[in-house]
Amino acid sequence: MSKQDLLLEIGLEEMPARFLHDSMVQLGEKLTGWLAEKNIAHGEVKLFNTPRRLAVYIKDVAEKQADIQEEAKGPAKKIALDADGNWTKAAIGFSKGQGAGVDDLYIKDVNGTEYVFVQKFQAGQETKTLLPQLENLIAGMHFPKNMRWGTQDLRYIRPIKWIAALLGKDVIPFEITNVETGRNTQGHRFLGQEVSVDAPSSYEKLLKEQSVIADPKERKQMIQSQLDALAAEKKWNIPIDEDLLNEVNHLVEYPTALYGSFESEFLSIPEEVLVTTMKEHQRYFPVKDENGNLLPHFITVRNGNSHAIENVARGNEKVLRARLSDAAFFYKEDQKLNIDENVKKLENIVFHEELGSLGDKVRRVAAIAGKLAVRLKADEQTQKLVKRAAEISKFDLVTHMIYEFPELQGVMGEKYARMLGEDDAVAAAVNEHYMPRAAGGEVPSTFTGAVVALADKLDTIASFFSIDVIPTGSQDPYGLRRQASGIVSILIDRNWGISFKELLSLTETEKENELLDFFTQRLKYVLNAEDIRHDVIEAVLDSTELEPYAAVHKARVLEKHLGTPGFKETAESLGRVISISKKGESRDIKPDLFENEQEKKLFDAYQKTKDSVAESFASKNYEQALDVLSGLKEPIEDYFNHTMVNADDEALKTNRLAQMTALADVIKSFANMNHLIVK
Question: Does residue 545 carry a pLDDT above 80?
C-alpha cells in the first residue's frame, strides 16, 4: 500500500501566547485521533506553531483505510431457524443487512446460547475521499476564549486567514468561513512573503527561508542559546524563568535577543517592582551579577532579525524608563502612607456586593484568626501579633504601587509594614497570608503568617458558599478550589491536627455539610498529587475525624503495610466489624449481657485499644496506631467464632451491635478498611 505525507496548517491572526501550545497539541491529538477512528495508518507526527499558525505534519499516511473483516452477531438460533430447520425472516433480514446471503450464515455458542453469525467484510475507502471531513475537525476545536468576526457564525480563538491542506502534492478540498484550502502559506509578516508548498515534507524548510521558525522547540532553543551567548559575552547572570521563556517563545516567529539598559538610580526601587515591571509588563529578562544583585540591564527578544537592532533597543529602553519612572513616583508617594488610615479606606472598597467591603472581610478574618490562635495555644503576645497582622493584612491594596502592580499585593505590604515599624512577624504575615499563591506554591514560613493565611482563605470560601457561589465543573471564578488546597497544604506543612469540622466551627457558616464535602474533595486532590493509591485514599477519607495532616500520614502507613504478611487478614477482620456495625447504633454497652468469654475479651481489647489509639494520635504516631488496631484481629476472630451478633434475643442483639458500633468507631478513626484492595 503506497503512502503519502499529510500537512494541515491553520493560519490565523496573532493568537494569545498562553493558548498557543495547548492549541497546537489539541490539533495534533484531534487529527491523529481522527485517523485512528477512520482506521488510517500513519507514521511520525510533528507539530508546529507560531503566533500566526497551528500546523501538523504526518508522515506515511496510508492511501486508504484498512479493510475490515469482522464477525457480526445476529439473532438467537431458536429465532433464526424454524421447526423444519429453514432460515426465518429474521435470519434472512440479518444476512441482507450485513451484505451477505443465508449461505454465509453459521451458528456459534455464546455462554450456553446459540446465535447466528456472519463474516462481514468492509473495504477501506481512499484516504483522499475522507480528508475533506477535516473541516469539521478544525471547526470543532475548543479554546479558552473565542471570538466571532465578520458575518461568520463560527466562534474561534482568532479569525482564520488561510488553510494549507495537502496529501502528498494534492490539495485537500474544503472551506471554512469562506476560506478555501490551498497550498500557500505565509512567511514572516515583515521579513517573508507568501509561498507555495509543493509537498508537506518541504513545509518547515520553506518557512525558514521566509524567516519563520515553525518548530517551537527549535525556536525556544534559539532563544536560550542567544541568552547564553549574551550572558557569556557580558559576564552576566540571566536567571531563566521557564514560564517567561515559554511565553516569549510563543510571541515570536523569528527570535533575536538583544539587550538594553536603564539608569542605575532606578535600582533604589525594590527589586520585586523592577523584576515585575520587566517580566510581567514588558516580557524582558532581568540581568544580575555573579552575586545575584540586579544590574541596570535587561534582555528582550525581538520578532525579527538583527537589522537596526540598536534602534529596537533604544525603543525598549524608552518604554521601560517610562514605567520605572512611574514606579519610582508611586514608591515615593507610598512612603508617606499611614497604615491605619489605609485600613480605614478598605471600608470604601467592595469585596463582593453580597459580602460587604474589604473592611468587613478584614474584620471576619481577624475574628477567625483570633479563635485559631487560641485553638493552637498561642501565647498572649503571639495572639496580639496575629490580631494586628489580620487587621492590617489588606492595607497595601489602597497603595499607589498595588494599583499599578496588583501582582505585588502582600509583597509590597510586607516592605511597607517593615518600613513603618511593624513587628517582623506582622510584616511577614501581610505577605504570607496570600500563600500558597498557586498549586504547589510556597507556604507561609511563620506561625502568624500561617494563621492569618488560613483565616483569610477560610473566610473567602465560607463567605462565597453562604451566597451559593460554589465551584461547579470548570467554573471557579473566585479560585475557591485553590484556596481550599492552600488550607490543606498549610495544615499539612505546619503539622496542625485540626479537622475540617473544627475549622468550620471557627466560622458562622450554615453550609457545613457542603463545605465538608468540598474540603474532602480538595484533600483527595492533594493525596492524589502525592501518588497515594486510590483505594488507600478512599479508606482514609472515610474516617470519622478527617484532618489533613493525619490523613497524609495514615495513608502512607497503610500503603507501607498493604503488602506485608498477614495484613490482608487483619484488614478483613477490622472491615468485618465496620460492615456489621452499620446495622447498629451508638449506645452504652452492657457487660452483664455478655454470654461468653470472647465477648468480654473483645470488650477489654476495645477499651485498651480506644485509649492507646487516642494516645498514638495525640503523639502523631500513626504507625503505632495501626499496630494497636492490628492487635484486634485475634479477639475479633475469636468473637465471631463463638458469638452470633444477630441473636434471637433482642436485648443480646442490641448489645452486641452496640459493641460492634463502638469498636467500628475506633477502627474508622484511622480508616475504613473495607475500601482497601489487599491481595
Answer: no
DSSP-assigned states of every residue in 413-427: HHHHHHHTT--HHHH
Tell me: the pLDDT tens digits for 417-442?
999 999 999 999 999 999 999 888 99
pLDDT above 80: residue 216? yes
Enter the C-alpha cell of residue 67.
Answer: 479493510
CA angle (460 as vertex; 367, 340 as ends), nearest 5: 50
Amino acid at 146: N
pLDDT for the residue 1: 61
pLDDT in tens, 562-595: 989 999 999 999 999 999 998 888 888 999 989 9
For residue 668, what are the contacts with CB-CB under 8 A and spacing of at least 6?
Answer: 542, 543, 544, 578
Q: Where are the alpha helices (DSSP H) in 477-511?
A: 480-494, 500-504
What is the domain partition of the chain in residue ranges? 3-65+127-209, 69-122, 216-334, 340-529, 549-675
| Residue 282 confidence (pLDDT) above 70 | yes
The CATH number fitting domain 340-529, selected from 3.30.200, 1.10.287, 1.10.3210, 2.40.50: 1.10.3210
- Predicted confidence at residue 100, as pLDDT, reads 87
* Residue 457 pLDDT class (50, 70, 90 cuts): very high
pLDDT tens digits, residue range 161-215? 999 999 999 999 999 999 999 999 999 999 999 999 999 999 999 999 999 999 9
Contacts of residues 269-275 at CB distance under 8 Å and 24 or more positions apart, as own/partner, are: 269/324, 269/327, 269/328, 269/331, 270/331, 270/412, 270/415, 272/408, 272/411, 272/412, 272/415, 273/327, 273/331, 273/401, 273/405, 273/408, 273/412, 274/324, 274/327
> For residues 406 and 481, is the Cβ–Cβ distance under 8 A?
no
CATH homologous superfamily for the domain 3-65+127-209: ACT domain (3.30.70.260)
Answer for the pair 613, 628: CB distance below 8 angstroms, yes or no.
Answer: yes
Task: Answer yes or no: are the C-beta atoms of 10 and 27 closer than 8 Å.
Answer: yes
Mean pLDDT rounded to a whole number for the chain: 94
- Please give the grid coordinates belonging to residue 153: 457564525
Q: Report, in this order, helix, strand and coil percent for the chain, each rounded to 5.
A: 55, 15, 30
Contact between residue 616 and residue 628 where contact means Cβ atoms under 8 Å apart: yes
Report the top-level CATH class of 549-675: mainly alpha
- Identify which of 247, 330, 240 has the alpha carbon closest to the alpha carbon of residue 281: 247
HSE at residue 242, side-chain half, CA atoms within 13 A, is 0
User: For 64, phi and psi rounded to 5 degrees?
Assistant: -150, 165
